[in-house]
Amino acid sequence: MEKLKFNFTLGDDTELLKKMKEAYLACPAAVKYCKELGIPDEKIDKYITKIFDFVSDINYCKKCPGIKNCTKENAYLISKVDYHGTIVETTMTPCKEIIKRVAFERQFQVRDFNDELLDASIRDIDKTAPRKAALQLYADFVKGNSNPWIYLTGGAGSGRSYFAAVMCVDAASRSMGPICFLNSAKRVRELAELANKKGEAFQKELDKYCNARILVLDDFGNEFVNDFIRDTIIYPIISTRHNKNLMTIFTSDFTIDEIETLYSTSKAGQLRAKQICKIISTSAKKEINLGTLAIY
Fold this sequence. Notes:
Layout: H1 13-25, H2 28-37, H3 41-46, H4 48-61, E1 77-84, E2 87-94, H5 96-105, E3 108-111, H6 129-143, E4 150-153, H7 160-173, E5 179-183, H8 184-195, H9 201-211, E6 214-218, H10 227-244, E7 247-251, H11 256-263, H12 269-284, E8 287-289
Parallel strand pairs: 3-5, 4-7, 4-8, 5-6, 6-7
Antiparallel strand pairs: 1-2
C-alpha cells in the first residue's frame, strides 16, 4: 500500500501521529465519513493510526491504477472504519473494482480462452467489411433488436476465435450472461464421455450449453463426429437454441455445406446432418469469411 511519506526520526511517535492527523484533515471524504459515524474529535486522535489506514486507501484508490497494477500491500482490499459505542475499529472489504471483476467473470459458465483476452476491447477490432458485418449482427443482439447467429469462417490466423472471444467479453461487461465459450473438440468429447456414464451429469452439462444466453462453438467441425455425437449432442444443442432464439456463435475452418458433409457419417445420418445445417443457415443467414491474414 502506498503511504504518505513522512520525514521523522525513528521513535518520534508524536511527530508521526501529527502527520497522520494532518493527512486525515486533508482528506474530505474521510472527515465526512467519520463525522457521519459520529466519531468525536478525541476518538479521532486516540485511534488515528487505524483511521490513517482508511485515509491511505482513499487517497490511493481515488487514483486507481486498475486491478492489474494495484500495488497496495493488501491488494484489492480497502480499510473500512466502524464506530461501536466508544471504540473505533477497522475492517477490510473487497474494493469495488474487484467486486465488478468477479461479477464480470461469473458471466462465463465455461470459458475456453486465455485470461489475457478478458481485457480485450471490441473497439480494437479492425473495421474491415467482414468484421463490420459481424459487429452489426452483434450490435443488433446487444440492442435487443434480434438474436442472430454468427457463423465465422476464415483461414488460420484470421482472428475468428479472437473475434468471438471479444464479443463475449463485451457481452459479459454488459451482464448479458450466462455465457459458454466452448472449444468444440474438447467439450464434445467430454459430453460423449459423460453420456457413457450413469447419472445426471451428461444432461446437466448438455442443458447448460442448450440454455446459455450466449454460446460459442469454437473450431466447430473439428470435434470427433459419429452418429451418436451428432444425434445426441450436436442436434439437441443446435435445435434447442434455435427454438429458444438464443444467440449462438460459430467459428470454423469449414463452410456450412462442408459441415453437412462432415456430419453425414452414414446414409441414414445424412438427413439429420442436413437438418442441423439448415437450422444453422436459417439462424445465421450467411457465413462471414474473415479472410486469411494473420491479424491477431
